[in-house]
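Re: that backbone. Tokens:
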């Protein structure tokens, strides 16, 4: 479980955060980056100007891209094994969970995860803030912010840095995809 991390980042088309317009994914096994995956996604919904300006992804760019249910056949095997990881993970996990629910796709009710933002607050307390671009800059990690694959790779770089600092088990949390929330300690103990 702790030898394989699946680091991912999603971009969304609007403020509802229930659909994905791009996803980047990186697998870190035994501390090494082994796999990466990126695709634009046709979210089958409207775009907000804010999201277009933030990500550079337009409705025209995704018009002929696969929808989430089609991509899920590729994503599911990658996401099945290991601990999930994202920067500000509750956001990315929530978007993934709402997308699964909106499309009526059944998946696991709960998954373990780590958040590189939360870990950074503990392991890099002197950082000016714990945003992905700030931490990536501190550690000289390349980043083209709000590109899902670049964000996922920078997050994987943070994860690799943290793994060199020691065991991350104390940072592992449990996400409840049925209720779209992180479980408290009392709830997590029921499933371990």
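Recovered sequence:
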């Amino acid at each position: 479980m702790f030898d394989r991390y699946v680091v991912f980042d999603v971009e969304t088309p609007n403020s509802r955060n229930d659909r994905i317009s791009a996803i980047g994914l990186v697998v870190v096994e035994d501390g090494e980056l082994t796999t990466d995956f990126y695709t634009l996604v046709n979210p089958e919904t409207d775009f907000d100007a804010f999201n277009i300006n933030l990500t550079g992804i337009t409705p025209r760019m995704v018009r002929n891209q696969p929808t989430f249910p089609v991509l899920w056949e590729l994503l599911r095997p990658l996401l099945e094994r290991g601990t999930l990881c994202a920067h500000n993970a509750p956001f990315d996990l929530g978007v993934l969970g709402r997308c699964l629910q909106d499309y009526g796709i059944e998946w696991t009710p709960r998954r373990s995860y780590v958040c590189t933002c939360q870990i950074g607050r503990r392991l890099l307390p002197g950082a000016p803030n714990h945003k992905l671009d700030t931490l990536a800059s501190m550690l000289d990690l390349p980043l083209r912010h709000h590109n899902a694959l670049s964000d996922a790779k920078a997050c994987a770089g943070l994860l690799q840095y943290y793994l060199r600092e020691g065991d991350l088990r104390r940072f592992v949390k449990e996400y409840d995809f049925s209720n779209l929330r992180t479980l408290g300690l009392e709830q997590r103990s029921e499933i371990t």
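The chain has a mean pLDDT of 95. Strands lie at 4-11, 22-29, 32-40, 83-86, 110-115, 173-176, 181-182.
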